[in-house]
Amino acid sequence: KIQIIASRVRLYRSLQRIIPFLIVRKCAQLATLLKRGIMSSSVESFQGQRVVFANKQAFEEKLKQFKLDGPSKLSVVSDFDFTITKFYMNGVRGASCHKIIEDCGLMAAEYHDEAQGLQAKYYPLEVDPTLNMEEKTKFMIEWVEKAHELLELHGLTRSVVTRAVHSALATGKVGLREKADTFLSLASSSKVPSLIFSAGIADVLEEILREQMAVDWSQVHVISNRCIFEESGEGKVTGFEQPLLHVFNKKSTAYLHTNFFNTEDIKDRTNLLLLGDSLGDITMSEGMEINDDRIIKVGFLNDRVERMDQYLEKYDVVILDDPGFDIPYYLLQEICEPKSD
């Protein structure tokens, strides 16, 4: 009996030490979850999709002003890879513009091996939360430069671009989000200029859009890494237009001389709908001289939800689960086709 009592005393004393620790630890975990904004109570349904608002009242006030101003004051700036296109295709990660070429099997085996090696090395660095922006930017510049050097070295042609895109679409490796085509069509018919601002390859994304929808190129503009093809022979790529774009240098400042920005019409548009899927996409509006309270920022958080706190610092609303384009389309409808009371 003495041994049993002694054993229970030791257990009691151990619990006295452990229980406060467990309580503190649990509180810390809860605090972290609250900070990240991923507590179930903060996730809500909006237009049938799971979202988290940074500040719902501020979001609603912005939308109300956009509706009052109408489509004549609106422009759209959107990322392409995994914003207009889906992140998951048939249960696996979809292909970006670069990856469509890297995995197409239409070029030398050495090219595909080396390009896929770059993807395996640099993508984890792009999304690594322990690296600061300066470190990430250095790696992204390296990635883009090396990827483009490989395309030049192994002779990418216009024909390969067309065939690679057709194959990727046919085999379900890439696809537009549902209603993305309807969104762009409504923007065009409402005379709302749309800029697709991408660190991918312009020639690839334009081919995807041509195959998936009827594009009004007078209203849809593209700023991306554009190939320079030789005029003779097989039309091989000889370089890329400058400056090169990567995920963390997408700023309008460097492109204010281009057609999209260099019109009086765009200068009179004081409201912006910005769509992206990365933290770097937020800078797409830099240089447009539009006040922050006149920008509705919609972010797709396709994976790694532990980044939620960072996304909520940048975006007005964060969309979860890689769904369709219902929310951007709804917002555009509300602005361009307001319902009568």
UniProtKB/TrEMBL annotation:
Keywords: Hydrolase, Magnesium, Metal-binding, Nucleotide metabolism, Nucleotide-binding. Its EC number is 3.1.3.5. The keyword NADP does not apply. Transmembrane segments: none annotated. One of its GO terms (cellular component) is cytoplasm. It catalyses: a ribonucleoside 5'-phosphate + H2O = a ribonucleoside + phosphate. One of its GO terms (biological process) is nucleotide metabolic process. Belongs to the pyrimidine 5'-nucleotidase family. This is 5'-nucleotidase. It comes from Spumella elongata.
